[in-house]
Amino acid sequence: xxxxxxxxxxxxxxxxxxxxxIAYSQDSNDSLRYYHNVIVKPETSTELxxxxxxxxxxxxxxLSKGDTISAVQNLRRVAIGQYELGFLYxxxxxxxxxxKLLEGQKSNVVTQxxxxxxxxxxxxxxxxxxxxxxxxxxxxxxxxxALDSSDSxxxxxxxxxxxxxxxxxxxxxxTSLLVLEKRLQQNDSIGIARAMDNLGFVQSKxxxxxxxxxxxxxxxxxxxxxxxxxxxxxxxxxxEYFFDQGNRQxxxxxxxxxxxxxxxxxxxxxxxxxxxxxxDLSDDPKVIAYRKLTDSIxxxxxxxxxKYAMVKYNVEKERQKAQAAELQNERExxxxxxxxxxxxxxxxxxxxxxxxxxQQRKRELVQTAQKTEARISKRVHDDxxxxxxxxxxxxxxxxxxxxxxxxxxxxxxxxxxVRSRDISVANAGVNVSDxxxxxxxxxxxxxPKGVNIxxxxxxxxxxxxxxxxxxxxxxKCLQELLVNTKKHSKATMISIAFNGKxxxxxxxxxxxxxGFDTDKILMGGMKNVETRMTEIGGSFSFESxxxxxxxxxxLF
Length: 556
Prior knowledge:
mainly alpha, Heat Shock Protein 90, five-stranded mixed beta sheet
């Protein structure tokens, strides 16, 4: 059986993946349409809550992906839903959030349409809470972004309604005429009828003669187009017109026709509006009193709700301010911690750098001193010691010098030769590549006759971890101690103990000699040892009394 090729499997997996992506995308679009309809026409509170949760999740996902325009569109849907529920200030806050998201976006057709829609919605919200000046301001902002006549018509209509609520019928007339002009250019019958009806209604408030003709012409167009919602609006306006003219009978006739149309629409809002109109036309004193009372209660309730909404909105704004202030405090604390940490790190690093430089300088000084010592040693050996040796040979070969004088002269010359050789050896360079061997050779070289030398294992100290310049100085220190013992102590036993523990190493040198108190020569030698140990960052301490031997510790 042949196995399927890699490319065939790749094709199949790719096809399945594409189908899943398409199915997911289709499912997402279906959900978007479904919840959009729920927001616009909610049937139950449970559905509405689900819609809000859906759009909240969508907004977060879109923002995380950088899809600002889609997030703004969903924020507009949420704002509409909040408006429909009467949560006016929450709707305002959501719209403002959408507007802020658009601030950093590049200006193009899509962003202009989105910004215009948000601004128009803010105008609607402010009209509802009777903040008319704000409503007009945001409608004006939306108009500035309108791409063509059709985009500006809804905003102009909304502005006209605000002017009517403000009883600014002159401005309302000007706006309505502009809308009708734009509708006529579009040749849209339903749109023309709506514009004519609104124009006629505004004209009726100004007692203009064309008012009734425009409203009746609009009604005929709507009847011909079978535009039931439009027909309802026409009869409602005609009822108000005849009532204002003092023709109660005609007003009631149009109100009854509006009520019949509301029943056809089967809409609670239309029915409530139509019945309210009929009650307004009633001449029954009790009904009139009832209407006044309900209007008063409704007005007070609306004022109270607006106050409560405003308080709630202000509280929310204060909470957001408090959160922002707290966040700022946290940021400042973080910056302070970072600054202090950086300062401490800078001090530590600076101190470390200075320390390393000092150590390097000391090492260089030690190395310079060691080179100088080696150079002096060579000069003493090559020049002085060899010359003394030559003089000794010359004296030995001179036959006419008295024997006693020759012996005495040879003794002094030999003493000078030995001392110069010792100086040369003491200052010669040291090979520390195999330091334990170098120490063994040092002890063997300065081993006094008749003296027993005991040492602990050299390996007690990890010499590989000790820098070369330190080894050289330790070598010189032990050399100084051995020379002092050989020349002055009259010891029969020398002990050298090597101890290493962690980063602390110690060499303990002791003998059972005669010791010393204030011998200047010996104290000078001890001073040399102390100086060398200080140069490598170590220390030297010793104990000695006459007749009680000597003990010194090299700590490094």
